[in-house]
Specification:
This protein is mainly α. 78% of the residues lie in helices and 0% in strands.
């Protein structure tokens, strides 16, 4: 989105080149804005949806980077691991938030 050099673009994996870089940026921005709006508005379903979009986007890029890492013989493993950890963190947050809202709904229904 910031106009990287052609060498940066050519090092992208098959997943990264599946869409233009601007579209990947829009996905990340939209997911982040959705999560922030969900938290600020106290809308659990919106927050969970944003976290899932973010998780899927990070996971897709992580898979592409892992394949590229394996092709290079293991060189550069830190970046795909970082993306995979971000994806797992977003997924865990979504599941935790979903569990919290289910507990609150159950308590509200019981009272």
């Amino acid at each position: 989105m910031t106009g990287d050099l052609p060498g940066t673009t050519s090092s992208l994996t098959f997943v990264g080149t599946a869409m233009p870089l601007q579209l990947w940026s829009v996905l990340f921005l939209a997911a982040g804005i959705t999560v922030a709006a969900g938290f600020l508005g106290r809308w659990p379903n919106i927050t969970i949806a944003g976290l899932h979009v973010m998780r899927c986007t990070y996971a897709a890029l992580a898979i592409g980077l892992i394949v590229k890492c394996v092709e290079r013989g293991g060189d550069g493993f830190r970046t795909p691991m970082m993306f995979a950890i971000f994806a797992a963190t977003c997924w865990s947050a979504a599941l935790g938030y979903l569990n919290q809202t289910r507990t609150e709904r159950a308590l509200k229904a019981a009272s």
